[in-house]
Amino acid sequence: MSAMQKERRMRVHNFFPGPAALPLEVIKQVQSEMDDFAGMGMSILELSHRTDQYDQVHNEASALLRKLFGIPKSYHVMWLQGGASMQFAMLPMNLLRDGQSADYIETGVWSERAITEAQIIGKARIAGSSKSDGYVRLPKLDFDPDAQYVHLTSNNTIMGTQFAEYPDTGSVPLVADMSSDILSRRVDISKLGMVYAGAHKNLGPSGITVAIMSDEMLQRCREDLPTLLKYSTHDENNSMFNTPVTFTIYVVKLVLDWIEKSGGLEAIEKINEEKAKLFYDFVDNSGGFYTCGIDKVDRSKMNAIFNLPSVDLEEKFSSEAWTEGMVGLKNLPQRGGCRVSMYNAVSVESVKELLSFMKRFMEVNG
Ligand SMILES: *Cc1c(COP(=O)(O)O)cnc(C)c1O
Fold first, then answer.
1. Which of 79, 110, 301, 330 is catalytic?
2. DSSP secondary structure string, 300-351?
3. 177 is catalytic
4. pLDDT tens digits along 144-193
5. Distance 140 CA to ligand 1 centre (A)
6. Which residues, 6 or more positions from 216, have their beta carbon under 8 angstroms from its beta carbon?
7. Tens-digit pLDDT profile for residues 211-247
């Protein structure tokens, strides 16, 4: 067995929803540069953000994101703190003035939270909700032409649905929370007003949230807000008005390098489709032992949720899987059941390993 193979064996198959798997190559590079970054005789953890060396990391992360995601030149890229959850508040704070309203699509826990925050700030109208269906599908939509923006959750991390395509919102800008599917597939950014995503699902470790905003939308943002809560502050200061999360941005930059080396989003998208197809085909052909209650057209390619015949079996399943080196398969109590997160850094090989465990488990317990 080669050293690399041995190492792969030691590493678990990581199906956590976030923080989540990172490419082994990235982990190894972080490790190798840890005590001496760029020949500086210190770790990146110790390096001031007011240096050319950090500047380069920071700007390369933005440039690579622009290149890989095809972000038009006129769009602004900002690295923000407070998680995607902070964006739930910052977005309406910046965009809603007295009496103005925004449309929200309600598709699960994360959109509920976005709606709650927007309603604290201004008016949030529900443009469609699948709550009464238990969120097993995406809702029918009707938009208010006077809304300041339409907000949707691109991929519903906990509920297991995903917009395969985004709705046409006419002249009203669409804002997508892509926390759990950013860079998993190609997207026409020019059709969106804004994208935001926490890094710790598909982009890197926790600590940073990226926001991509059209110039038109940025121009409409309010200026009568506390400094750190204004998008314009972060835009005008290259996301360095205050100290950025330097280490996380550095790891994100390495993940972006890895995506580029892997063939970019076209290649990544193919692999993600392959993993999702393998998984759902297996579940749908398991004779009802494993079930997925989500409408087929709305199923997420990132977070597949599934059930076993009983809660007891689901408990047994996730704990036995853990013993066999397959971790993170239990969903949150808000949804219950099991979930496999198949982000970019989760290989086809890991999904195949999981399926062979699921087959064995079914033979013994079915
Ligand atoms: C995880 C997640 C969030 C919350 O992210 P934090 O960074 O923890 O605030 C928001 N939206 C979606 C879709 C998520 O998956």
1. 110
2. -SSEEEEB-SSHHHHHHHHHHHHHTTEE--BPPTTT-SEEEE--TTS-HHHH
3. yes
4. 999 999 999 999 999 999 999 999 999 999 999 999 999 999 999 999 99
5. 24
6. 173, 193
7. 999 999 999 999 999 999 999 999 999 999 999 999 9
- The string over 75-112, giving b where at least 16 C-beta atoms fall within 10 Å of a residue's C-beta and e elsewhere, is bbbbbbbebbebbbbbbbbbbbeeeebbbbbbbbbbbb
Answer whether 117's CB lies under 8 Å from 92's CB.
yes
Nearest to 158 by CA among 172, 179, 143: 179
Interatomic CA distance for residues 239 and 235, integer angstroms: 6
Judged on CB neighbours under 10 Å (0-12, 13-18, 19+), 221 is: middle
Instruction: Find out whether 262 and 268 touch, Cβ atoms under 8 Å.
Output: yes
**DSSP β-bridge partners for residue 150:** 103, 174
Q: Is the minimum distance from the CB of 177 to ligand 1 under 6 angstroms?
A: yes
Atom of ligand 1 nearest to the CA of 88: 10
Q: Tokens representing 274?
A: 């392959």
